[in-house]
Every structure is written in C-alpha cells, then in structure tokens.
C-alpha cells in the first residue's frame, strides 16, 4: 500500500485515540531514564484495570491456572486439594491434556460452555441457559466485535446504526467505526444519576432513522463509565422499546458482580426478559456480554469473555459461529472463565480465603466509590453523581472560560487539555469524557476507583492540588 | 436480525467449514457415552496441533509461565534459578507486576517487542529489526486478519485481491472471505516438491487483473501444508516479482524453526530482501508472521503471535496500530513469546533440559516425516512429495472412479468423502485438500506428522487398512 488512499475506507474512519495514553507512556519512560518530575510515578486510572492499580488477583484462580500450565505442580504439597482437583478436571477437558492444544470447537471447550450456562441459570433464578447459546472469545471487546461485524451492512442511509448511550464505554466508538457502523447517540440523564430515559430513546431513534438504519441498542449495566445501575422497571421499558422497534439488545453486563449502591441489585436483561412472558422471551433478540475483566477477578490482561445469544435466527447464528471458526479462543482464558463462574463452595479448602478476598475487593470498591464521590463533590468546579455499581466515577468539570479558550487556541478538546495538564503536573492519568463519546459542553473526566485505598488517596490529593491551582490561576 | 438477509454480505460469503471437525466431535462424544466403535478413540491430525497429538510442552516455558501466574512460586525450591529470574524479569514489565493488567501499548509490552526485535536481528545475521516494526497479537491468524482488514476495499473489479498459493493453509480461504478479499490462486508445482513457479505467478496475476485489484501475495514458507522449503533463488524471484508488480509480501514464516530436509535451511524473506540491496530493502513492503503455534513450542492453545512490518507508509502503519488500540493482546501470551524468542543460553541451569527437549522434537519431526512419506508412497493409490520442513504431509490420492461417482451422487467433495469414511471406519481425522483451496481433480489429504512415533504408527496402520479395503471394494 503506497499510501493511505489505499487503506480500507472503514479503517480510515476509525477515530484516532486521544494522546493521553502515549503521553502517560512517554512520561513513564522519562522517569525510568532518570528524568526529574514533581512526582515519583504516573498513576493511571483512566481504564478499568484493577491489577495495574495494585489490587491483588484471586488466589484460587491463579493457583489453578499455574497448575494447569505446569501439571508437575499437582504433586506439590503447597496447593489446597480443591485447587489440584480443579486443575486436574480442567486439564482433562483440554485435548491431549494440555492448555497448548486448540479447543475442540470454535465456540469454546464444551465443558466450559456448560459451566458458564449453569452459572447463568443460577444467577437468573433458574431461567435456563443453554451451552449452545454461549460463545467464548478473547475478551468481551472481541465478542462485541463479532456481533458488530455480523450486523454491518449498507452505506449512508442504509448503513446499520447502533443506539449508543452517551456517555458510553470509551472503547466503543472506535469499535463501531472499525466495523462500519453508525453511532446513534442517546443521552443518559446526568441529573437522575445517569438513568436511561424512554422519551430520549424514542427521540434518538426517530432522528437516526433519517440518517441510517438503526438495528441495535447498546446498554451498559452497571454503567461504564456512569456507575448507574438500572432498575427492573427501566429494563422492562428498554426491552419493550427494543421489541416494538425491532432492535437487537446488546447488553454489556461486564460489571454484574459489582453493585454496591444501597438497596440496589443487579438484574440481568435475560432474567427480566424471561419474567416478561413468552411474548418477549421468545422474540426479542438479546446478546449479553461478560468478561474476566470484571471488578472482582480483574483479569484484564488475560483477555477472556463470553456472550450469550438469545432468540437469534438459527441460520444467522451459524454464520456467527463460522466467523470464529478459523481461530478458536485461547484455552487458558477459557479455564480462567470456568474458575470465574464456578467459585469454591462452602466446605472447600479454598473457600475461606476466596470469600475473604472477594469481600475485601467488594468493600474496597464500595468504600472507595463513596469516599471519592464525596471528595470530588467538595472540590470547587467539580460535580459527581454517586455511583451504584461498576468501577468508574464520571464527574462533571466546570471549566473556567480561559481554559476553554486555551483549548480552542491549541485545537484540543478542553477535557483532554485538562487531563494532559493533570498528567504533566501531577502524574495522574484520567480519561477524558470525549473518549466516552460525549460532545456536549459539559466536560467530564473518568476514573477507575477500584484501587488500594492508599493509592486512591494519593490520586485524590494530586487531583485536588491540580484543580485548586487551576482555579487559582484561571479564576 | 430477523433473517440471514440482514447479515453482513461479506460474512454471508464466508465459505462454510467442511463437516469433518463436527463429525470427529460427534464420534468422540458417542465413544464417551459408551457407543461401540471399531477403535478406542479418534486421532485428529488434521491441523497442526502437536500437544493434542501428545507432544510434550517445553518445560522452561511452562515453568516460567506458571510462576508468572502465581508469583508465590518464586519462593519454591523446585524451580531452577533461571526460571525464577526470568519470571521476575517478566513480572517486572507487567503493569502492577501482574499478568492480569492490560499492556501499556496496543502493539505489546515494550520489553517483549524489544526481545522479539533482537531475536529477528540474530536470526537474520545482523540485519536490524526494530521494536516499532513489531505488532503482537492473539495469534498469527489475528495478525493476518488485521492486515487483510487494512487492505480490504472495493467491490467486484476494484476489490482487493491476494495472490494465494494452491494449496494454502486451510484457515486462509475463510479469512479472505471474511475480510471481503478476492482469493487469486497460483498453483504450486507438485512434481517439483511444491515449488513456486515464476511463470505461474505471472499467469495468475495477469488473469486476476481482469477480475479484481491484486495488491498482495501470500507466501507460506516452510510450506503449510506442502512441507516445501523455498531456496534463496526462489525468494529473490518472488521479491523481484512483488517489487515489479507493486504487491505487498505477506510471508507466513510460522514454521521457520522446523526445517529438516537434507542441506535445506530457512531463509527469511526479510534477510533475503536486505541482501538484495537498497533498491529492494527500502521499497518492498513486507509483513512477516510468526507464532507460538510453531513446531517446537507447539503452544497452539495459547494463541499468541507477532508480525514484523517493513517499508509500510508511516501513515498507513498508524492506522494499522490504531486498529488494535481498543483491545491490546493478552499478556501471558506475550510473556510466552518472550520465552520463545529468548531461550536459555549455554551455562543456564535450564539449558540442558531445554536443548534435549528441542532436539527430541526436531528428531521426532524429521524421522516421522520421512517414515510417513515412505509409508504413504508404498500404499497403492497414494503419492506423497517428501517434505523438507513444517509439520504437514500432503499426499495425492488416486481415487477409484466409483468413489468419485459416489461423491457426486452424495453432493460432497471426493476428498471430504474419503476423510469422512476414514473417520467413521478407523477413527483417524485427516484434512481434506479442498479445505486448502484446491479444486483440481488431483485430490489430496493433509496430515500433521508432529506426534509421538507410536501415535504416528497407529495412524499409518489405520490409514493403510482403510486404503487397502477401499481399493479392494472399488478396484
């Protein structure tokens, strides 16, 4: 390809990432080379990456995976019996007894698919999940990519559109671009804690129908980056909306294990759909995504996830499965998923440690979210909706006009400018709201609060000095 | 999506896989459920998957990865010092010291990129490789998919075409389909041990120019599934051809570590390109692929690979890197790649064991390939070119006319019918030549010969009884 003109036009339209990650990498490298900075290291909480921030992995999971990699450890006295039994069981379902062989089917190892289906059935109070509806992939991004690629078609007015919440997960806009889909924004209601509004859905859809062919609605629940947890009534409304308007429901439920708001609970779209009766449960097309990168496992680096596919036309589903056929998902990730959905039970040797570790993560997350929200709301020029779940806070920035002018002069988004300065001056890397697709004049920043409390305090202290200095310089 | 009509037209055009894998899975399941078969288990050597066939993993790699998963093992006396040092070094380059965090850049962990570049430089006798030219992905299939997606454009006569060897790796045709590219076949010369023929390249390109816009040529060296190893003169010819015709070189060099033919050696396209002088080394666009699924590591289930990108327009390269941005490659796979390219050195505690394991694999592969080739050539109705590298044999079948008629009646490819019967009657799963893109009347089968010698003998014995019975029934 002698020039960019020859590149796939869809690829050319992928929006470029902001400069924040590369700036963070550059500063980190400068420090490593002995460069002097007003801080010892960069703390990056721009994405949901608990281990990077210092959270510990779940011991049971790591022990099982270590033994699977090196089965000689089955003889090791140091590991609890249930770790060794689980590893032996999992090695037994790998072909040739090795994590180094391909999985039997491109959707995943049948035993793991069955475990996932049993987990979902238990989670949803007995609403049956079937292994043949589960497709495992190298992470929920890849699962979503498969579905978006499957649905992509048309150009201009006939191009497939996806109703997308504003704000949305920061990885989503580029994924829509890369698959040649139109992002159809619907605003979440910040003043109602980022709730979904039915009138807004109708408005967004009506507008979109003049520009493209909307064929799906994306939902993030618990909300990334909003921290909102949808109640049952809202979910029912969204399902009815999807049913009436013939939209596929794409439910990102990656943070289903981390709801901590008072009297809040996680309701899966699948369960609510089936509680609404056959009129809905046998017709509405729903794809739900889950991942190892959730709050409590936090195994982002492993890149493993699955999707459950409900009410898809069987011939379409065959196409979906064929898409993955030349390249089955990695095996060790599949074993990690099995451990995630099939935790140690009371009485198992690992149960006590496992429960304590999970409880510790849950408490840290809940206390951090509350602490950070209160702290941010006490800062001048910042306003944060309380989160009820997920691992992000998404405060609103009231930027001084002089900062807005400077951003305009520099040709950079004001929220990106804010984050650049914060990174350069205090070594804290946050996400900019424009990455979450927001274009309105209410600027936002994004931070993951699942970190050791001492790290969170350090972040808040640095952010506070920066914010106060900023408002002092540009009153 | 209420029906297949709404599916992405490109996805609809993906050729369906043959029924062989699902038949193998069904028979395996029947045996598990107690079904009576004339064999105890299915042996599947249709794809290159050494661990599944019973080859052992490299201990050093598995030990390092186990420790990385569970760093408590750093205290363990059982592991050699160099294993622990390597694990500590690798954990040090993971953010938060955990394999559970995302990698810093979407191309891979900088330290691993540097190791890969050093390995390539060493392999190519000092021709420099640069970390910024390396992109790591979840396997060489994914690397190739990125490039194909980048190059995809147009429809009909303007659609991007890729010159593709016949036979080609069996996963390639569906990958081209899925990315909306035209497969432009060029025949390899079976009677010359599957060599590339320059006249045939020109013929194929000329024909193709009336049907699409050929913009790349795919090369598999050592050849999958042919076992051919290209000599330096051929590589020079192909490079000159690509230069003259402005084609991007896509060099699948996954089996670079397994050349065993007498007086044969592996020459990388990169090295030959640079030996040809600046006229070529500064202009010809080359992308070379390597993978953990190679012969000696054999870690297919891990799904890790990299590509080295030479002479790509910088703006195009930025697009390529942005494509992977929302979803960096899995970390544990990257660490496995580091171990692959940076083996224990003489004097290291693990060196002795490592060298013996590698030598054992190499010897098994070489002896198996020779043994199987001789055995197949002794069977009536079969003719096999000797392999010089890679892990497949690809014998030609001389099928009786009655079998061809039966296949026609059943509406199935004759080579697929042959493999189905072999699977049902003898429990051996081979690949059918049509999966490798071959449409000519010379039918072929594909088998991976990297397996323990006893397994290979079992395969050959079963294949022999089947073949003799077939020729007896249909003389």
Automatic annotation (TrEMBL), chains A, B:
Biological or metabolic pathway of the protein: Amino-acid degradation; L-alanine degradation via transaminase pathway; pyruvate from L-alanine: step 1/1
Enzyme Commission no: 2.6.1.2
Known catalytic reactions: L-alanine + 2-oxoglutarate = pyruvate + L-glutamate
Cofactor(s) essential for the protein: pyridoxal 5'-phosphate
Superkingdom: Eukaryota
Name of the top EC class for this enzyme: transferase
Assigned keywords, A-Z: Aminotransferase, Pyridoxal phosphate, Transferase
SUPFAM superfamilies given in the database record: PLP-dependent transferases
Residue ranges of domain Aminotransferase class I/classII large in the record: 104-463
Gene Ontology molecular function terms on file: L-alanine:2-oxoglutarate aminotransferase activity; pyridoxal phosphate binding
Protein family (similarity comment): Belongs to the class-I pyridoxal-phosphate-dependent aminotransferase family. Alanine aminotransferase subfamily.
Subunit relationships: Homodimer.
The protein, known as: alanine transaminase
